[in-house]
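Lab notebook, page 48
Experiment: co-folding of the full assembly
Goal: obtain a model of how the components sit together before planning crosslinking
Operator: M.T.
Materials (sequences as entered):
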Amino acid sequence: MAPVAPSPSQTSGPLWGFALLFQGSEQAVDPDAPGAIELRGRVIQGDGRPLAWPDALIEIWQGEQLARTRTDGEGRFAAVVAKPSAGVLPDGRALAPCLNLAVFSRGLLKQLVTRIYFPDEEDANAADPVLELVPRARRDALVARPEGDALRFDIVLQGDGETPFFQF
Amino acid sequence: MSTVELTDVNPPYLFPAYQSTIRRAPREQLVVLPQDWFHELPGPAFGRIPLGPNDNDLTNQHEGRPHGQRLLLNGRLLDSDGRGVPQTLVEIWQANASGRYVDSADPAFMPLDPNFTGAGRTITDNDGRFTFRTIRPAPYPGELGSFYRPAHIHVSLFGPSLASRLITQCYFEGDPLIAYDAIAQSIPDPKARERLLLRLNRELCEPGGMDSAIAYDWTIVLRGRNATPMES
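Observation: model returned without errors.
Model output:
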């Protein structure tokens, strides 16, 4: 069949919460399940100000995991996730375990997608073919850091310390 | 004919007429992942998102009848090879007939309708078809100094691959406000912008009486697993 041009993206705007969130939507896994980890972070824009409530929808996906949450007044979000198993590329190379994270917001005409790597996977991260595509100086921004029993992953949309975002 | 990259259908991240892009658009280039690395991987799993059998009828979620013009949205979801995308989640949300969202972040310039929430969900059938029964949302004024947005319905779609996740909006053909809307005009290609238009389907309109509904067709195209650059 002839190729068809895709539909263009538009911003989610700020008024999606009543429709896209649901009870427990921030929990990609049961918080009591073995391996469940709290993932928290903060989203900031180019002038250092947060993407505060109501704007930013954070979606986390990997395999069967899906979480949705909304940033609060300080731009903070929290979700419950689990470290997924490692994947493999079609050419057989191993991928380090990671989660996909998408930011939708007022002011984003298309989502920004990044990848969250795990701090206890140093060897796998060092050999990960996706991280190899990211300039070395920016790779650390993709590795969550331990914060108590939780993991911390901050997102900078623009400017100093800008988070690497991916185009599939 | 020239070859265009698929990504050209999308607005740029930075579009100064839409002011909140100025501090939010990344300055660095996106890291481009080779297309064949992930195209066999399924898209996000949406199975946890609750879905009731009548969630696609937004006119029937409360005791009374919502205000406004009944609208039958006759949708078709295709991949970029022209095939229907079956069994995937479609979520919509919208303002009511006065231009007010139920969301607690709405500035509340306009009144709520106790009989209208404005959120719906459905799953495409085996041919990628879906329908929503709703009301026509009103245009609504934005923040101080901004103009009315054209009437629109927001839609969120999953689809077959990680690359196909899409949130967009549909507009009504012939709405003169579209030409003045920074969000709609951020799409560089006028033909791509036209793909967000709902088009009247006279055959499907349901005439007569208080439930009379105006039907609109909308075809949405997602990037598929084998999305390749195409001829424009």
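Interpretation: Chain A touches chain B through 64 residues (CB under 8 Å).
Next step: discuss with group before ordering constructs.
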